[in-house]
């Protein structure tokens, strides 16, 4: 379900409309806009809180953007900017006719039901987004619902990483090795130094989870699978609430929309989330 619907939310960070909206507010560079758009539901959060909840960013990487981002504009203005940017991007790429059609309205209704069923106890990012007003147009309802659902899943993923004893940079090392991401690129995108990365590899190797080069051992692959299974189990409540038939219907309804996103420049296949479109959308 994450692979099926997450690309609708990812428009927030990949669409040029988002960067342009933040530039108009006065931000400088991609990361200032990223942290402003994603952290805005928390209010004017300090860098320590953003670092804690986002989990895998280096604290100094966050601190270069936060709290300066709140001096540029209020969280409320970032919330308005991201909604307007997503609206503009989806209209440009998908088109008014599709967005206003019955399929998107049906998808939005299912996704909203799932989001409303997502428990937020202990899940700060999900709770912050769930507290926001619902948009009034179906395509934005679909986007907002997936925003709640993906942060709900992400909050649970952090809990799974903590349970597995993987600190932020260790989690990235294991993730990159498991899904085949460019480790150097992921390290740079999250702000960790080569030394910090190498030290994490050494810690993991001492636990028998990687070899000295950072490749996963059998124990490392097993732990990674355990983390993913735990994450999925923690994310299942909303989908169990709507049922398998509705979830499968949501996939079918969103697939044509998601399939349009890469060509429109609002989905980056080379993304640090390791998000790959479902075959039917790709």
Automatic annotation (TrEMBL):
InterPro entries reported in the protein's UniProt record: HTH_67
Pfam families listed in its UniProt record: HTH_67
Organism domain of life: Bacteria
NCBIfam families for this protein: SCO6745_fam_HTH (NF047719)
Protein name (record): SalK
Annotated organism of origin: Pseudonocardia oceani
């Amino acid at each position: 379900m994450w692979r099926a619907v997450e690309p609708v939310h990812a428009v927030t960070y990949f669409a040029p409309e988002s960067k342009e909206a933040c530039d108009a507010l006065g931000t400088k560079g991609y990361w200032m806009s990223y942290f402003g758009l994603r952290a805005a539901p928390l209010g004017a959060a300090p860098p320590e809180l953003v670092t804690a909840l986002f989990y895998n960013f280096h604290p100094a990487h966050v601190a270069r953007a936060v709290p300066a981002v709140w001096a540029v504009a209020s969280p409320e203005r970032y919330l308005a900017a991201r909604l307007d940017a997503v609206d503009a991007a989806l209209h440009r790429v998908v088109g008014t006719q599709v967005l206003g059609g019955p399929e998107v309205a049906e998808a939005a209704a299912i996704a909203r039901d799932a989001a409303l069923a997502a428990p937020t106890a202990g899940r700060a990012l999900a709770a912050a987004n769930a507290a926001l007003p619902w948009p009034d147009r179906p395509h934005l309802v679909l986007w907002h619902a997936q925003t709640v659902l993906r942060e709900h899943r992400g909050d649970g993923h952090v809990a799974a990483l903590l349970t597995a004893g993987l600190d932020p940079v260790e989690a990235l090392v294991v993730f990159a090795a498991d899904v085949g991401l460019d480790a150097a690129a992921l390290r740079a995108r999250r702000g960790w130094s080569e030394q910090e990365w190498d030290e994490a590899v050494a810690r993991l190797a001492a636990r028998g989870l990687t070899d000295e080069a950072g490749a996963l051992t059998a124990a490392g692959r097993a732990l990674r699978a355990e983390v993913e299974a735990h994450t999925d189990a923690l994310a299942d409540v909303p989908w169990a609430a709507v049922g398998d038939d509705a979830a499968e219907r949501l996939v079918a309804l969103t697939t044509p929309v998601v399939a349009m996103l890469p060509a429109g420049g609002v989905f980056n296949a080379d993304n640090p989330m390791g998000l790959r479109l479902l075959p039917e959308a790709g």
